[in-house]
Amino acid sequence: MNYRPNYGGGGFLGDIPPAIRQLVLINVIIFLFTALLDAATERTVVNLFGLVPAHLVGKGFVWQLVTYMFLHGDVFHILFNMFMLWMFGQELERWWGFRDFLKYFFVCGIGGGILQVLSTFIFGGANSPIIGASGAVFGILIAYAMAFPNRQVLLWFVIPINVRTLIGGLIVIDLVLGFTNSGGGVARFAHLGGALVGYLYLKQDVLLRKWRQIASQSRSTGSRSRSQKDEPPSADHNAKLDAILDKLKQEGAGALTPEERAFLHESAERARRRQKGQH
Questions:
Q1: How far apart are CA 133 and CA 277, in angstroms?
Q2: Biggest alpha carbon distance in the chain?
Q3: Is 142:195 a contact under the CB 8 Å cutoff?
Q4: Could you tell me which residues belong to the region Disordered (predicted)?
Q5: Alpha carbon distance 257, 243 (integer Å)
Q6: 241: Cβ contacts below 8 Å, ≥ 6 apart
Q7: Closest to 101 (Cα-Cα) out of 137, 65, 71, 67
Q8: 156-188 b/e with 16+ CB inside 10 Å = b?
Q9: C-alpha pair distances (Å), 102 with each of 26, 209, 254
Q10: How confident is the model over 144-178, as pLDDT tens digits?
Q11: CA 131/CA 51 separation, integer angstroms
Q12: Residues with Cβ within 8 Å of residue 168, at least 6 apart in sequence
């Protein structure tokens, strides 16, 4: 039994979960649009919608904390970010769902932007625009490393390495280059901020608490809606759900089997159906 919902439409794009598909399409469309602009107009767009610390702090351009994620400097920049989002984000979205994944993406991107802005008070560069989805993508990377730390990937498509080592190495590189102010024009603190905020967000057990809330709603709603199409959860069902949630908290998402993930997904869907039936 597979816990992954069918996002289907067929073809390559149809196989990509909807949040990632929409993020990639929006980024590509904006990149192509800005590529058609003349140099002066492009600078104006970047200064208005890229993240310029002096504008954020001095002029209150708070929207830049979101819009900077959708601008990219060149083809390699957008290809790298979208590839990483696609490669490491798909399984997370299929597990978390559309809304939770998007929320996490933007939380990490905004957090990365804030840390990059704060770093300019120490290292300078307050008038330099920051662009790219790398902060949000690093949040996705840290989430994947926490969920599947021992999963093997191919570095440069050749060298097998586990995810925790790979992403830990990327963070160490950003730490060294960021604090030695030798980033080479790369917003290292946006990477670090996205990873840090993502780590803290997940360590607060936000998603785990949501599962527990859904489980609680499932039990309370089930006891009040015996006339509904779905039968209320049995004692065995609740005991199994509690055991899986405890395992998730103690050992992390990577320890769950596909069957356990499927069980969580089905429990959540059942709770949502019952909740809708009350309204």
A1: 39
A2: 67
A3: yes
A4: 218-240, 254-279
A5: 13
A6: 215, 233, 263, 264, 267
A7: 137
A8: eeeeeeebbebbeebbeebeeebeeeebeebbb
A9: 14, 18, 21
A10: 988 887 887 777 667 777 888 888 888 888 888 87
A11: 6
A12: 145
Nearest C-alpha neighbor of 37 from the set 46, 27, 28, 26: 46
> What token pair was written down for 186?
């790369």
Domains of the chain: 11-203 (1.20.1540.10), 206-277 (no CATH)
| Calpha distance 28→25 (Å, rounded) | 5
Cite the DSSP H helix spans in 149-203.
Answer: 163-179, 188-203
pLDDT digits (tens, 9 = 90+) for 208-253: 566 566 556 655 555 444 444 455 667 777 778 878 877 776 666 6
Task: Give the up-direction half-sphere exposure of residue 147: CA atoms within 13 A in the CB hemisphere.
Answer: 22
